[in-house]
Amino acid sequence: MAKDDSGFAEIEEYSKKLNSNPESLVFVPLAEAYRKSGMLDEAIETCLKGLQLHPSYMSARMVLGRAYMEKKMYEEAETEFRKVASADVNNIMAHSLLGQNYMKQNKFADAIKEYQKVLTLNPDDMTAQQMLNKALELARQTNAPRVPAETDKTAADNDRKKTISRAEAFSQQGDIENAIKLYQMILDADPENLVVRQRLKDLEVRKAKASAPRKAPERAKSDMFSANYRDNDKITSDDILSVMKDTVPRIPSAPKTAPAPEPKPAPKAEAKPSVKAPEAAKVADAELVNLPALTKLKQTEGILGIMLMDIHGKVLSSTLKAKAATAELTNTVSLIFSKTEKSVQVMDYGTQVNQILITGEKGQIIFSKIGSKILVVMADENINLGKMRLAMSEVVKALR
Amino acid sequence: MDFKTILNEMVSNVDGAIGAGLVGTDGIVIEQIALKGTFNISDVGAEYATIIKNAKKASENFGLGKTSEILISTERAMMIMNTVSNSYFVAIALDLEGNLGRGRLEVKKAIPKFEKELT
Fold it and tell me: How many domains does chain A have?
């Protein structure tokens, strides 16, 4: 039953709104208010009625699933969460709730799979990591079936990482055929690995595009941003490397068994007409940090620090004084970009994010993506945002 | 005043607005409106929630304290996201010709109204 007045007030308010417009989507916050107040039957009934009118409204299915789970109707809850996860394989919340639902039923092996999916989608999710550890521990204690021993799991993970590393090396050399073969192998062994599935899809698109006749002017346009920019890569080695948690070198060592030929020892840039050689890219990086526009930006009043990094997290130049370690900062920046890019692609707002500005209590940070590089600028709370963006646009122009 | 009314008021004053939504930090969309057919925040509520979470983390890591606003620009649109109390955020999307300054102002004006409704 309801536990406090604020819950009742919410219910009353949303009920009025729903009564005045029965087709409104307000049935979701109403059902959520019922659920939070412990009125689970009412929450379920409200969701079921609303879903008759809006069957594809996934938020309602999430609330319904939660209400079922709290009512210990675990099968029904699973059905709802599965519907959401099927509609959107990247829905972290659905996988997390599936994990919770399995934990409540002591189905630890299934819970482990779900938390692993959450961590694949967001490697920084500490709650999912804790729950995964808990599930692994409980699975060991209860000798749950289908959970590999930790050593087996580690060995399998290492094999997978090595194979991913080799596949990425092939991809960098432009050997898409072999990269696809290796990713397909990983996917066969782990069919629910969403990042690998997406990477494979990207490579197949790339292969298809490579076999189609090229339009020279368009190619030149995208290369304008960066010699290393690859417009087909929605989930790139950023995501792959974040899944691998920086443990795998980008140039792989020779594995013992291989179904595909080995990548050449020194990875070359992708086989595209305008791609620069690695040595040339190094020279370009060194020149970048001494750009007059960058120096001017550093001297702008209110700028607290600047960092120029590549999309893989390598710092090219930095005057930032932050609380956290540089590696943590670069990981966070890369993660924000990859998540934001995924969301704008889903919303059909383009394929890449140009700029992200975060305003905090004590200042602001702007991340600008320029080809394969990210410029991070931190400013105090009094900075004129317009002037700051103007100074940044000069840097962006110069870098391009 | 209901959420839809607040969202409508918010976007009606912003040139180039595509749509807006009120979303929980758990990714559940409370209410949304679309001025152009493509806007459906339900599809990305969870992704937006992750962006907010990581932006908060970045803000802390960079020593900037509590996050209040996030602006995102792509080659086709701009998005403004502001936190509303601790459990919700409001997002508005604008096309490239949209008035970003006005968008930020209208979102800031709408926040107390959402907070009043949510408490």
Answer: 3
